[in-house]
Amino acid sequence: MNSLIKGLGLHTVCQEAHCPNKGECFGRGLATFLIMGNTCTRDCAFCGVRHGQPQSLDENEPDRVALAVKRLDLRYIVVTSVTRDDLLDGGAGHFARTVVAIRDTQPRGVIEILVPDFAGSRQSWDTVIASRPDVISHNVETVPRLYSQVRRGANFRRSLALLKYLADNGWGVAVKSGFMVGLGESWKEIEALVTDLVEVGVEQLVVGQYMRPDGRSTRVVEYFGAEYFQEIEELSRSKGIARVYARPFARTSYTLALANMQ
Fold first, then answer.
1. Quick check: 29 and 1 in contact, CB under 8 A?
2. What are the start-end ranges of the E strands in the chain?
3. CA 136 to CA 208: how far, in whole Å?
4. In the chain, what are the domains?
5. How would you write the pLDDT of the chain (262 residues) with one tens digit per residue?
6. How many CB atoms lie within 10 A of CB 222?
7. For 206, phi and psi rounded to 5 degrees?
8. In the chain, N or C terminus with fewer CB closer than 10 Å?
9. Residues sharing a CB contact under 8 Å with residue 16, sequence separation 6 or more, in sequence order
């Protein structure tokens, strides 16, 4: 996997975000592609991806991602990106070109894209919808109270607006979100967050334990056991989200979550 990714000049969120599941997923020939470089214009306190001034877009990247998908013979393909606030469309067009390239290469594959908020641009939201992925995911990451601490540069209401827009205008595209626990949120805040996600039309939800990816990231406030995640699953289903995967090591694109979502 390392040789393939390096040889094609690609990035994966598995590597750049120091995902704890990288060894297992790479061992199974799975990866989540990270497009538009490995440098993010935002600096979220929970994330291990580097922050700074990104390089210009690589126009050939969508074709190389599609080639990697073909070589790995992937049936469920997940593509995410760094946030590119430096681009007029936030990179929405690059996402769309990547989806089209993958579809041409693997027409029977299920394509999920995990997108940033594109700074609230509805034109950009329309662009990614029009590329017709099977699933569009946008993570709220944490409860509203912690945004200024954990998700700097983002806006909770803007993220909810994106999810609602996808649900209302997505032409049958499944809408997915995710968040972390262990950052200092309360149970009441989790209940309110799940209610918000239900109200905007989220159909699939992944919840995982926050684990500090590096020394500069915010510290873990609390670790939870499997029982706590089971309670979150039960809460979410009782409120109307049928497909929920909550585990300590759950991540949006983790292979167990993917199996549960199909």
1. yes
2. 11-12, 32-35, 39-40, 50-51, 76-81, 110-114, 135-137, 174-181, 204-209, 243-246
3. 19
4. 2-261 (3.20.20.70)
5. 778 888 998 888 666 555 665 566 666 656 789 999 888 999 887 776 788 889 899 999 999 999 999 998 888 889 999 999 999 999 999 999 999 999 999 999 999 999 999 999 999 999 999 999 999 999 999 999 999 999 988 999 999 999 999 999 988 899 999 999 999 999 999 999 999 999 999 999 999 999 887 878 899 999 999 999 999 999 999 999 989 999 998 887 665 444 544 4
6. 12
7. -125, 130
8. C
9. 34, 38, 48, 49, 50
Give the chain's end-to-end CA distance (angstroms, integer): 24
3-state SS class at 35: strand
Enter the pTM of the model. 0.91
Name residues whose C-beta falls within 8 Å of residue 258's C-beta, 6 or more positions apart in sequence.
Answer: 76, 78
Q: Which 8-state DSSP code applies to residue 36?
A: S
**Location of structure tokens 């690609």:** 10
Q: Which residues pair with 33 in a beta bridge?
A: 12, 79
Task: Output the six-digit token pair for 141.
Answer: 């990451």
Find all residues with CB under 8 Å of 49, minimum gap 6, and list them.
Answer: 13, 16, 17, 34, 38, 39, 40, 82
Determine contact, residues 236/255, Cβ cutoff 8 Å: no
Which two tokens mark 259?
């199996």
Cα-only R_g, the chain: 17
